[in-house]
Amino acid sequence: MKKLIYIIVPCFMVFFTSCEDEFIDLTPPASITDDVYYTEAEHFLTGSNRFYPYLMGWDDQGIYSDHGSDLVGYEEGSDMQEYARGETIASVDDDYYTDTYEYIRDINLLLERAESYDGEESIMEYVAATKMHRAWQYFFLVQRFGGVPLITTSLDVDSEELYAPRNSRYEVVAQIIADLDDAIAGLPNEANIGSEDKGKFSKEAAMAFKAKVLLHEATWMKYVGTTTDGDGTSTGAGSAGYDASNIIPYLQEVVSLTQSVMNSGTFELWDYNDVLDDLSSNFLFNLEDGGSNPGGLDKATNKEFILYGKYDFTFRQAGVLVSHVYEGRLKPSRKMMDLFLCDNGLPIDQTDRFGGYANTPDEFENRDLRMRAYFTYHQTLGEIPQNGDVLLNGGTNYGYFNSKFMSWNWGTTDAYRATETESYDLPLIRLAEVYLMYAEALYELNGGLTDAEMDASINLIKARAGLPPISNAFLAENNMDINTEIRRERAIELYAESGSRYSDLRRWGVAEEELGEGVYGAVIEGTIYEDNDALYSPEDYNYAPEATTTGVGERVCLVVQPASIRNFTRDNYLFPLPTSQLNLNDSLLQNPGY
Predict the structure, then answer these.
(1) How many CB atoms lie within 10 A of CB 344?
(2) pTM of the model as a whole
């Protein structure tokens, strides 16, 4: 997580430069405090602006992109790989805990000063944005740790709250909802945000984020319940405020909020397949100016991102390895590759459109366009690999490439961006996810969707992927169900985005099952790799190949990680609190299982 130097007074150098003499004359330097600073509307504008880097960024790739999940065919030593195997232990420190509370204190300071502000110029928008920031930070804590201490004021060294116990997740979520209601009321519509301020929170972003929070908590209560809470007296944060009767109204509000965003007329799916050789689902994620793609499209064409981290080549480059990391750590697993439907809308085990695995290009034929957009080699993007293009010679080579979130032509003489200078925006919520939240909430409420509801949501995403629309008749005729299709779409469309996979598996209560399975790579049995020393070196892998279920039945495949070392349990749904915090506050209780 970004390690920012904590500064109580949110004063930028530009502010000091422009009014240095007057400011020093009025206030001795030793007396400069947030009380002095937050006196004008411009101060609240500047203060709220500096919270945006506190959102998730490119330096949070491990968490953001679900490193080590069941969909990733890559093995390494990293925190998130250990997490997927159920090997996380309580560490002394966790920046994702301590840094987040530093951010929250910064945020609380502005909100406190806003209460006593008596200037003539309105600060409503800046306060609303700050409430949104606080909601974001607390939701991050809830997703990672469950219940946490709920602090809504700035604390001093002797504040009683420093030694208070954890609040339950339900109490924290109630505060998140209240903050988001205030944010929705005070933020401008996206259509009223000028081009120079794009990336700032809009009313629709707050609505979409509230829908995300409500859907997460409604499904968590439904499928996980209180099983991860602890009793609040010996372990965990307890279940104070738990109320299962909130599930239905939460889901109903998800439908209402997502409909409002969908019907705002402001957002649209970024579909330029006609000028990008059907590769919209690649170039959307590395979009900068017109040189970032063969269609000459820039960020102004992107009306799909609703909530996102703003980057710019001049003012805010990634500053960390992006293309390099995504090239390796997001190579897909066998499960991920087999999730893609064929171009007739059917799963690969239900249609003769599936080409099988015998030759390297076979499984790419007649498939969902996203498969080619995500998982062809980035230097020859969109070209389906042929026999001999993919060598199984150990290391991180398990049969597939990843190109999602990689800069165009990276690593070649025609590279658009050099390492660490990538400056594409980081999507946190986009319209495709809003469609999927709408569809999922309807399913959870009604057990199904009407054809019209499918056409207004999931079928729009499928159309960009080159897939035919689904209907209730289509699903029934092909022995398919809408819940599976919604979850399939979340896995594929949101691959490596915003921590969606780990979040989904946990809130659906299936993480121990899905993450407990072995992770596999390319099919060996019955393919060009079998007994072919020129293409496959079995001795270069840590594990012997073994049989697993594929689209054509059981076949022997490369093993990325065997099931025997993947021991994720219900106790792993939440991360442990850092022990340094437990030592500082005897009232804090560790999560169950740690």
Answers:
(1) 14
(2) 0.94
